[in-house]
Design goal:
The chain has helices spanning 22-30, 34-46, 54-65, 70-82, 90-101, 106-118, 126-137, 142-154, 162-173, 178-190, 198-209, 214-226, 234-245, 250-262, 270-282, 286-295. 66% of the residues lie in helices and 0% in strands. It contains 16 helices and no strands.
Length: 297
Amino acid sequence: MKKLVILLTLCVIPLTQFAQKASDYLQAANQGYANAQYNLGVCYEYGYGVQQNYYKAVEWYTKAANQGMAEAQCNLGVCYEYGYGVQQNYYKAVEWYTKAANQGMAEAQCNLGNRYYEGLGVQQNYYKAVEWYTKAANQGYAGAQFNIGRCYCLGLGVQQNYYKAVEWLTKAANQGLSYAQCSLGVCYAEGQGVQQNYYKAVEWYTKAANQGNVDALCNLGRCYYEGLGVQQNYYKAVEWFNKAANQGHAGAQCYLGYCYHYGKGVQKNESLAKTWIKDAASKDFDEAIEFCRKMGW
């Protein structure tokens, strides 16, 4: 629950406007117009009006980026980071993110913060990560707001401060970011930076779970299992555990196994209990490992 989730965004204009316009962009791009070069790069990246081709996307992004277009610089950074159309190169990714970030582009600032956080393409530096996250967060960029909130939770690059963490997580959560909603739910459940409130925890877990956030699915299942913030309901607990377990979430697999072992919310089934709990143990989930040891599995 304390892992910082790194968010990276492709900084593109809404893609619908590119459909069937590639030929128009090509004519303008060949005349040296940076906007057209960038738009053509997006068309090639996503296959809008042309056959998808990451190499051509990089070619056109590079032309626009070399003219100083921040959006193209950011997208080119993404291509280098993930190896889309070029050999993966974190140093080149950082180079292009920096160019776009220095122009004030929030997405690039967040992505550059990610690289400093992970130490990929630059020497790891949590203080620099926070610096760039803050620039993007102050522009209202939800991913950066979430990341800086988690930095405050963990005390990475800043002094640990749960109140500041909640402040930033709330900003991101109110923009609909599921990771922030789930993390904010954890803060309410554990009373970190806010007064402990399981009802608020369930509220935020539910918002995130409805977007498919796997941690929130599991956490919501636990709330129903234990009757925290909701009326205890083993059937609902099993429902939420199932959704997360089927996506490979170790905690949910373990707790679903408990449900089968104890016959709570489902008919008791030791075979299924063993299967789910051993699966969780194979993912190094400590609680499952201990249970398997206890049961002689």
